[in-house]
Amino acid sequence: MKRLGGNCVTESYVLTGVKLATMASSDTPYGLIEDGAVAVSDGKIVWAGARQELSADNYPWTQIELDGRLVTPGLIDCHTHIVFGGNRAMEFEMRLKGASYEDVARAGGGIVSTVSATRAASLEDLVQKALPRLDALIAEGATVVEVKSGYGLDLETELNMLRAARRLADLRPVTVKTTFLGAHATPGEYKGRDDDYIDTVCIPALRTAHAQGLVDAVDGFCENIAFAPAQIERVFQAAQELGLPLKLHAEQLSHQGGTALAARYGALSVDHVEYATEDDARAMAAAGSVAVILPGAYYTIRETQAPPIDHFRAHGVPMALATDCNPGSSPLTSLLLTMNMGCTLFRMTPEEALAGVTCNAANALGLNDRGRIAAGMRADLAIWDVESPAELAYRIGFNPLYSRIYEGKR
Length: 410
Ligand code: DI6
Ligand code: FE
Prior knowledge:
By secondary structure, this protein is an alpha/beta fold. It contains 15 helices and 14 strands. It has an 8-stranded parallel sheet with strand order 5-6-7-8-9-10-11-12. Helix 4 crosses helix 5 and helix 6 runs parallel beside helix 7. The two termini are about 15 Å apart. Fe (iii) ion (FE) binds near residues 81, 249 and 324.
């Protein structure tokens, strides 16, 4: 027996004495295997199941005894904006003293202040500011983090944000999936000329970023304070020509029809969706789009319209949960707290919450080799000092992570 410790990299090993939340079968809640084992080789899971069924002849490797600890897939944050310049704590203080959104904007706050600070930052600044946010996610077992652009809103800065996101994956043992979000807001210099911005800045920037290998998916913000469905559709058409998968921030503050549009284009996910209707849920189910639920933004802006979880359940729409980490509406870097909020604010079950940051989050990113514990999947695992999986969502502000395995390596 060997303990899991230090920085040793064992090529092939078997984790034993583990409770497995495989998220890979519906036979038991969480796909739970009480006394399980996982065989790992070359960064992949080669076998997972009940310990008594493990054939020591087939896997004659070092056994790592985990004393009954819980093993889940590595967590996946499928919606973040962790790369940005500046910070917006001043705005938070102003709002708490009664300032309106307009007062904040007049004092230089709001999304435009993040755009100015991001434009002023160097690539290295953006990376250094994002690292602590990424590290907080990793410290809670994250093995995949999606990162969006969208605070540059000009070619050079959008490219810089995406390069910073790619650089994060060189600096930490984590997978970073990049999403181009040029259609996040109209920058000051295009005020009142949204269409012009979309056609002459956003879409050309998407093409350039894609040509430089910086884009894994394309997103937009469809909202009365952002872009209309017809404007988003032009971005989607450009993305489709490039063969890129789609996502959309839709129905966050009002119902604009973005969900129906995203479903029509077969989007991987539709995100926020507080104001989505039952018809929207039907369309998402038919398209196979994941509903990405973002309780951190709901909480921060003190929204009162909860996403239609019952409709998503009834129509079989898979639900993911993500931090939406951003300086304005969700300064949140904890997936465990996100899970707790999904349960407490939206009455999701702890099992739905764990699916939301594992298998369904993988689907929201189009990753089919993550988010489940099964033979053939990547060995991205989180090991927890808890007795039952419900504890992950139950506790508030406590991190029971014991160890994290990324591509087979601790
Ligand atoms: N939805 C949001 O809530 C944020 N972006 C988005 O698409 C707001 C971003 C910010 O205020 O910086
Ligand atoms: Fe967002």
